[in-house]
Structure formats: C-alpha cells, structure tokens
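Hi Y.,

Following your request, here is the sequence exactly as I used it, all 124 residues.
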Amino acid sequence: MNLRLKKELEMKERLEMDKQEKEKEDEFKLKQDELKLKQAELEMRERLEMEKLKIEMVKEESNTKVQSKSDYFDAAKNIRLVPKFCEKTVDKYFPQFEKIANNLKWPKPYWTTMLQSVFEGKAS
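Below is the corresponding structure, written out as tokens. Let me know if you'd prefer a different format.
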C-alpha cells in the first residue's frame, strides 16, 4: 500500500511538473509571438516612414523644378493680395497670411518683405 501511495505521489508530482513545464513553454511561445508582432509593427512603421520620406523628397524635387523654371517673383505685383494688418486681430492675421501665401505659392524668402509692407503702428 505504501508503495502504491508513493508511486501515485510520484505520478502526481510528474504530472504537476509536466503541467508547469507546459505552462512555461506556452508562456515562452506567447512572449515570442508578442516580440514577433512588435518587430513586424516596427518594420511596418519604418517602411511607412520611408515611404513618407520618399514622397516628401519627390514633392521637394518637383517644387525645386517648378521654382527653377520661374525663379522670378514679382513682390510688387502680389503686394495687393496681402491682407490688411490690424493690431487687434494679430492672432488671426498670421494664419490667414500663411494660408494665402501657401495657396498662391509665394516663395518663403519673400514672406517677410510682403508682411513688412502692410505693418502699421507699433508693428512697423
């Protein structure tokens, strides 16, 4: 009887050890899968970032080509399109100016000249 109890106890211990080992293996596999998923996610983000950079470079190249064809910018001709400056609405003025300048594709180096032409009061 004692021998049988001993064997049963050994069997239970073995089963418990097998169960724990299986749990550890499952946990290990789960962590491996999580790492693979994170790695795939990072690779995808990296590819996306590279694509964004490529698009940005293509845009810059096309802008450079367009600018080189027409390097001449007539500020005097466009000055009338600059909105009137009002000190009371400064917070709205600059976003409005940027929107107009971007839409009309004014070269950024000329923006300050265009702005200075309409400043009044303390701003000038």
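The helical segments are 2-69, 75-78, 90-103, 111-116.

Thanks again,
Q.
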